[in-house]
Specification:
Structural class: mainly alpha
Number of helices: 3
Order of helices and strands: HHH
Largest sheet: none
Helix content: 55-70%
């Protein structure tokens, strides 16, 4: 199925509402969303480290600064 939205005619608010509706619907059946094995492995490793008390965490503000610096 090809879905065509009138994106050029939609406001930013309309687009955000459409995204929100899609995420809400996708979350109803999370088990149907394919997860690549590399992603699952990375998450498993991070959960293991957190469980062992070996994980480090950053505040959201610090994380945003670090991500912003990496994308410049």
């Amino acid at each position: 199925m090809t879905v065509k939205l009138p994106l050029a005619e939609m406001s930013v608010e309309d687009k955000l509402q459409a995204l929100e509706a899609l995420w809400t619907d996708l979350c109803r059946n999370e088990e149907d969303i394919p997860v690549p094995q590399w992603h699952r492995s990375l998450l498993d490793e991070r959960m293991r480290l957190a469980g062992e008390g070996k994980a480090t965490f950053s505040s959201w503000e610090l994380a945003k600064e670090r991500i912003s610096a990496q994308t410049r």
